[in-house]
Structure formats: C-alpha cells, structure tokens
Amino acid sequence: MSMKQIVFSVLISFAAAAAAQAPAKPEPMKEPAKEPAKAEAAPPKQAAATGPKIPKPRRWNEDARHCLERGSNLEIIKCAEEFL
Question: What is the DSSP letter of 42?
C-alpha cells in the first residue's frame, strides 16, 4: 500500500467512528427562578454622596512577589489581585 492509501484509510476510519457516536442532546432551557414581588418593588439603592468613584491606578507593572510570603493560597490570591 502506498502512503496516500494508508492516510486515506485512517481518515475514513476516524470519520466512521465519529459518525457512529450519538449526537449529544442539548439540555432544555430553564427559566430563572423569580424572586418574590417584594424584592422587585424595593427602590434601587443610591450611590454614596461622596462624589464620583475614582478608579485605582493600575499596578500591573509593579512587583507582587511579596504576596508569596502570605500564609495561605487565599491570602496570596487576594494580595496579588491588586496587581492585575
């Protein structure tokens, strides 16, 4: 057999195996649970009257290796998130 025939037979066998598998059935869409009407009637919370929110300066170019000295993984993650 030539190389082309071998490659062709391998491709055909993979295609046959893929076609033989049953297609996955999508799950039906579920409607989100509605909260009680009391929560919908509540007035929206107003922002603090201190003025416009000023974004923190980005610190992605600073060194965050000091966060690795924290005690647990959760503390390391919280510390390092400031540098993202």
Answer: S
What's this model's pTM, rounded to 2 decimal places?
0.34
Cα distance between residue 58 and residue 41, in whole Å: 38
Under DSSP, is residue 70 helix (H, G, I), strand (E, B) or coil? coil
Give the amino acid at 15: A
Contact 31, 50 (CB under 8 A): no
Residue 83's contacts (CB-CB under 8 Å, 6 or more residues apart) are 59, 60, 62, 64, 67
CA distance 78 to 84: 11
Using one digit for the tens of pLDDT, what is the confidence trace for 4-63?
899 999 888 888 877 777 666 667 767 766 665 555 555 666 655 667 787 777 777 888
Tokens of 63: 């060194």
